[in-house]
């Protein structure tokens, strides 16, 4: 039986992962579950899946959970503190790690899983954005395999030829005749796709989090609305698929039925289609190269009827260009971009920053930071991350 650690099990991806795992009790066992503050949900998950460990970031939440579990006769051991995340991501007994913590907080544990040679199911795109070269190096040196969970990257992975899939996972040599010409990375355009620029100043967090096609955590929902999500995904794809921004075309596809495409040198384009349900990429990542039931309904292609495509509006949504520039600048620039964005999104969610200022804060933070041209250690990334957070918070207060 394959032992799985689910980092961020109480979040949107975490819950969907446990839904898929729960459908295959013969195939998957749960080694550890982790959460930040939602102790109630974590307790329910522990009772249902009986993991060996549960990790909770704060001491007092951990004590509370341990008491509740003991009272319910559950033998799950509770670990307190962020170090516990790395411990359960790299433990010898673990085969696969679902990296589904949101933001920079997920980097150390995602990286620990890669270094320990696990099958890393990567949802935590910020980890790869912040530390792309170090992360990919850890995958290779640790002998890990990397399976994309982000729906677009999972779709691209599904459309790649088998040797190229092997290479994504850190093993396998470049083989002639793969024939990939470029990647078409699709995105819905978010809830404000058709909103005029001046209306973007007054949109509320609630409107921003109401994504037309996907039900996701708050941070990624706001990122989808600013299109920073597509920017982060562009960087994610460059690292994962070993290519540059020029090899990737961003396509707005409002129906979210095609999840991305790969074009070949003979002119063929392969697309992956399906209902917008994260259990599909999660099941594919878990079972690859096999396929398992994900509980996802058949796509009604007749009811879908139309598939529309348009170019992204980079005037109204400047985040896309910011992300592209940060990737090209390299070094600490993507980490600064990601950190400033996290701070700005949080401020917007707290109603302390207008929606259309999120991209400004990211641009100003990047502009006023000393970008280091190359990085050789994680400390340099964390240092850039901290500076960017302080600077972004200061810019928001002004
Ligand atoms: P979410 O907000 O629903 O859940 C986040 C999880 O991380 C929760 O379990 C929370 O307890 C945990 N967490 C938050 N802060 C933490 C901290 N400081 N320390 C430890 N744990 C912490 O987010 P989500 O939508 O599930 O997204 C998770 C990741 O997956 C993000 O990186 C997101 O970009 C990516 N992703 C999500 C979706 C989606 O459909 N939700 C799709 C593609 C990619
Ligand atoms: Mg995505």
What this model shows, in words?
The protein has 398 residues and is an alpha/beta fold. Helices cover 46% and strands 15% of the residues. It is built from 17 helices and 11 strands. The chain has helices at 12-22, 39-49, 59-71, 83-90, 107-115, 125-142, 151-159, 162-168, 205-209, 218-226, 228-240, 279-287, 301-304, 319-329, 333-349, 358-368, 378-397, and strands at residues 2-7, 28-35, 53-56, 77-80, 96-99, 119-122, 145-148, 180-187, 248-252, 258-264, 269-273. Strand 6, helix 6 (125-142) and strand 7 form a beta-alpha-beta unit. Helix 2 crosses helix 3 and helix 10 packs across helix 15 (333-349). The model has no long low-confidence stretch (mean pLDDT 96). Magnesium ion is lined by residues 150-152, 233.
């Amino acid at each position: 039986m394959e032992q799985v650690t689910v980092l961020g099990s109480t979040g949107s991806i975490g819950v969907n992962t446990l839904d898929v795992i729960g459908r295959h009790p013969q195939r998957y066992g749960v080694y550890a579950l982790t959460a930040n503050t939602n102790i109630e949900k974590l307790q329910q998950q522990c009772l249902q899946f009986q993991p060996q460990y549960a990790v909770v970031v704060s001491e007092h939440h951990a004590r509370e959970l341990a008491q509740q579990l003991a009272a319910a006769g559950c033998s799950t051991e509770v670990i307190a503190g962020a170090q516990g995340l790395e411990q359960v991501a790299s433990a010898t007994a673990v085969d696969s790690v679902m990296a589904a913590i949101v933001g920079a907080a997920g980097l150390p544990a995602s990286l620990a899983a890669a270094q320990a040679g696990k099958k890393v199911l990567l949802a935590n795109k910020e980890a790869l954005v912040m530390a792309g070269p170090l992360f990919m190096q850890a995958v290779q040196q640790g002998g890990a395999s990397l399976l994309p969970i982000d729906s677009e990257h999972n779709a691209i992975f599904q459309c790649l030829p088998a040797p190229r899939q092997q290479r994504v996972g850190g093993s396998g040599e470049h083989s002639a005749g793969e024939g990939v010409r470029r990647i078409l990375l699709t995105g819905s355009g978010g809830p404000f796709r058709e909103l005029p620029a001046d209306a973007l100043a007054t949109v509320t967090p609630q409107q921003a989090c109401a994504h037309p096609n996907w039900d996701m955590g708050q941070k990624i929902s706001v990122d989808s609305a600013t299109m920073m999500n597509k920017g982060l995904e562009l960087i994610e794809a460059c690292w994962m698929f070993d290519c540059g921004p020029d090899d990737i075309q961003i396509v707005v596809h409002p129906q979210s039925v095609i999840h991305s495409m790969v074009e070949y040198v003979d002119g063929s384009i392969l697309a992956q289609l399906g209902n917008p349900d994260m259990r599909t990429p999660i099941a594919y990542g878990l079972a690859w190269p096999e396929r398992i039931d994900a509980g996802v309904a058949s796509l009604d292609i007749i009811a879908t009827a139309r598939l529309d495509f348009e170019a992204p509006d980079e005037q109204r949504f400047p985040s896309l260009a910011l992300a592209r520039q940060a990737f090209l600048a390299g070094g600490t620039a993507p980490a600064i971009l990601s950190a400033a964005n996290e701070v700005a999104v949080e401020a917007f969610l707290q109603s302390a920053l207008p929606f259309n200022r999120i991209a400004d804060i990211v641009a100003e933070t990047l502009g006023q930071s000393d970008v280091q041209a190359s990085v050789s250690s994680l400390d340099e990334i964390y240092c850039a991350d901290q500076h960017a957070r302080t600077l972004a918070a200061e810019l928001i207060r002004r």
